[in-house]
Write a structure and sequence with these properties.
By secondary structure, the chain is mainly alpha-helical. The protein is 72% helix and 8% strand. It is elongated. The two termini are 28 Å apart. It comes from Oceanobacillus arenosus. This is MarR family transcriptional regulator.
Length: 151
Amino acid sequence: MNNSGEYNRDSDLSLKLLVVLTRALESIEKQIVKNIKSYKLNLTEFAVLEVLFHKGDMPIQKIGQKILLATSSITYVVDKLENKNYVKRVASPTDRRVIHATITKEGKALMAEIFPKHKDALTEIMGGVDVSEKEWLVEHLKRLGLHAKNL
């Protein structure tokens, strides 16, 4: 095979890979959203609760960075979670300009109940591949993402 043929094959496979990854992610995300909605939360609310549940109190701005959401959007989500009594705002003890989000007792109880169910749902959603294939995918997709990031 000449270089032109290899280039075309690589180019065609790159396009196909993008389509397959996009469709797979859409299907996976649809199932994850469905699962989270069954807990009367949206994806962003769940993400905020999950970060606070596993990482502890955190400045609202830092939560946005962790889950890749703008600070203005996080403020809205924290408002909604406060109304549900799952999160409260607390002024930073060292800098009054910084507001921390804290998961409440009710929020902790909710996450302690639903997070194991969520993990089980993820295992089912990702059940199309076995454990060794998941390890391979994690390794290779991470490498692909790092390559793209460094371009």
